[in-house]
Amino acid sequence: MRPYREAIVLAGGFGTRLAHVVPDVCKPMAPVAGRPFLRFIMDQLAAAGFDRVIVADGYRREQIEGFFGSSYRGMAVEYSPEDTPLFTGGAVKRALGRCQSDWVFVLNGDTWLDVDFAAMEAAAADALDNVSAVIAVKRMRGFERYGTVDVDAGGALTAFHEKRPCEEGLINAGVYLLRRHALDDMPEKFSLESDYFERVVGYRSLRAVECAGGFIDIGVPEDYELAQTMLAPLAKSWKLAMFDRDGTINVDTGHLHEPEKLELIPSTVDIMRGYTDDPDYKVVVVTNQAGIAKGLYTEADMRHLHRYMEDELDRLGVHVDAWYFCPHHPDYTGPCDCRKPAPGMLLAAMRDFDALPGRCIMYGDMQSDEFAASSINVNFQRV
Asked: What is the CATH topology of the domain spanning 239-382?
């Protein structure tokens, strides 16, 4: 089963060097290929199966929070705002206080890297107790904008070097995997890079994982312009195949939350496999989970079950791209706009994947599933 994954995204900078290019937005929300840059990072995290993202925001944070809300592509989204600048280290330290995992990813909200999250997790799993962070590094050629790093044959990051013209070298690519308590003894305000990483590097406390894929930092106008074409292929409008869960994908045992009680329905699995094999479709689940409101199980229990279901479905050739759930029940939490027959979950999925109603289909076993779909002109198929 894949691990529970949490990420912190640093999105509180002022974007001074881009201010004359995009004067009305914070840098992570600068438009790239017709969408906010931060969406490319969030899409990447969702595709990698992250469960929770904490956005460390500040300057014009209402733009970020208004766009992403409390969830995106099935990930829980929370915010760790700073009223005064804490610098990168202070912002990460504050956000780590909200985290649960032993190791937490940290990404910069103005940088996109085709990062191998699993390789970084493997490096952390093999690390000695004194290792506090795994840093993604990227090999670059012909540059002077970035400082370089040294990495030994065993994968230890051994030195940081100042910016200088360089024909070829490894740079810090701005994605980290940190022990949750690594920064406990640091002050409230500090630089993660210069005040922490550069201080502990001599103790062999840092590991490096080289990432060979794409990399772009939109911090300067020239690279911001380059990002428009580089990331354009990722700004895609999808078709959606949406599936109810209980009674549709699995036998409805009543408030299912225990993996050992899961029984998949083969006919639905066959349908889901067909959409998984179609490159134009994304497969999402939209499920009422009133058991959370009733106190029968927690959101963490549900997410654990979904990770288990992902493994079982993957063995059968099915990939689920996002899980949407409603944790409410009118008798316990009052009315909401996400519990089916309301279409809130379907609308959220369509927004997150830029899908139009005519390019979506909903599968379910209940009249509430049909009402949710028909109310927004989405085709419905009963199973």
From this structure: Rossmann fold (3.40.50)
